[in-house]
Design goal:
S-adenosylmethionine decarboxylase, nine-stranded mixed sheet, two-stranded antiparallel ribbon, 11 strands
Length: 271
C-alpha cells in the first residue's frame, strides 16, 4: 500500500478530533443488599487509581506527555482524575491516523495542553425488577497530530462492556502552506476499522455516518448471552427455569432498549 504524501501545514494543525463513547455493563441484582454489593464492586473495579493507570496508557498510545495528575475517590461512590498532558514531539512523528486498530490493553477528567480526555461513571438501578446498569461516558478530544482513534481499541478492552456507543467527529480546519483549508487530515470510512478483529466478532454493529460533516457513529451490542455472566450474588442453577427465563428476558430487554435508544413494547417477544 503506497504511503500518503505528508501534508505541509502553515503553522499548527488546528483540527479538533473528538472520540466520544458510552459503555454499558448490565447486571441482575435482586435484593437491595445485592445492589449495594454490585455498586461497591463497580466502585472498586473503576476506582481513581485504576482509571489513572488507564489514562496513563492512553497518553502513551496517542503520543502525549503527562504534565500533572490529580485524582479523587468519592463517598458514597465515584471517582475523578484530572491529568494535564502535552503533545509528545518525538512520538508524534510515529503516530498514524490510518484505519487500523490501535494497541490493546467514577469520573475521570484529563486535560491536554491542546486536548482533553474525560470519563464519567453512572451506576443506577431499576426500582423493582432487579436490573442494575453501570455506564461510563468517555471523551478523547485531541488537536494537532495526536489521534484519539488509536486509543479506542485499548479503551474498549479496558472495560467489560455489553453495549458501546461510539461517535467520532473532526471539527474546524487547518491550512496548508498555500493557504488551502483542510477540514480533515486522514481517511476514514468507519470507526469499525479501528477495532481489533476479535472485538468485531464479539459485537453486533450498526454504523450511522454523515461523511460530508466528518461525523461517524457506530453502536455495538454483545452477541453472546450467558445468564450466569449477568447474575450478581446468585448462580443460574440456584433458580428455577421459569425464573431464569424471566430474568433473561428483563436483561435482554434492557440491553435492546439501550442499544436502540427507546423503550420497547412489553408485548414484544424477545429471542
Amino acid at each position: 500500500m503506497p504511503r500518503s504524501r505528508k501534508l505541509t501545514l502553515h503553522g499548527f494543525n488546528n483540527l479538533t478530533k473528538t472520540l466520544s463513547f458510552n459503555i454499558y455493563d448490565i447486571c441482575y441484582a435482586a435484593t437491595p443488599k445485592e445492589v449495594s454489593s454490585y455498586i461497591e464492586y463497580i466502585d472498586d473495579a473503576y476506582n481513581a487509581e485504576r482509571l489513572t493507570q488507564i489514562l496513563r496508557d492512553v497518553s502513551d498510545i496517542i503520543g502525549a506527555n503527562i504534565l500533572n495528575i490529580a485524582h479523587q475517590d468519592y463517598d458514597p461512590q465515584g471517582a475523578s482524575v484530572t491529568m494535564l498532558i502535552s503533545e509528545e514531539p518525538i512520538a508524534a512523528e510515529k503516530l498514524s491516523n490510518t484505519e487500523a486498530p490501535g494497541p490493546l490493553p467514577e469520573s475521570v477528567v484529563t486535560h491536554l495542553d491542546k486536548s482533553h480526555i474525560t470519563v464519567h461513571t453512572y451506576p443506577e438501578s431499576h426500582p423493582d425488577n432487579g436490573i442494575s446498569t453501570f455506564r461510563a461516558d468517555i471523551d478523547v478530544s485531541t488537536c494537532g497530530r495526536i489521534s484519539p482513534l488509536k486509543a479506542l481499541n485499548y479503551l474498549i478492552h479496558s472495560f467489560d462492556s455489553d453495549i458501546v456507543m461510539l461517535d467520532y467527529r473532526v471539527r474546524g480546519f487547518t491550512r496548508d502552506v498555500k493557504g488551502k483549508k483542510h477540514f480533515i487530515d486522514h481517511k476514514i470510512n468507519s470507526i469499525q476499522n479501528y477495532l481489533a478483529t476479535d472485538t468485531k466478532r464479539r459485537y453486533e454493529m450498526i454504523d450511522v455516518n454523515v461523511y460530508q460533516e466528518h461525523t461517524f457513529h457506530t453502536k455495538m451490542l454483545l452477541k453472546d448471552f450467558d445468564l450466569d455472566s449477568y447474575l450478581f450474588g446468585i448462580d443460574a442453577d440456584d433458580i428455577s427455569p421459569r425464573e431464569q427465563r424471566r430474568i433473561a428476558d428483563a436483561l435482554k430487554r434492557e440491553m435492546l432498549e439501550i442499544f436502540y435508544g427507546r423503550n420497547l413494547n412489553k408485548g414484544i417477544k424477545l429471542l
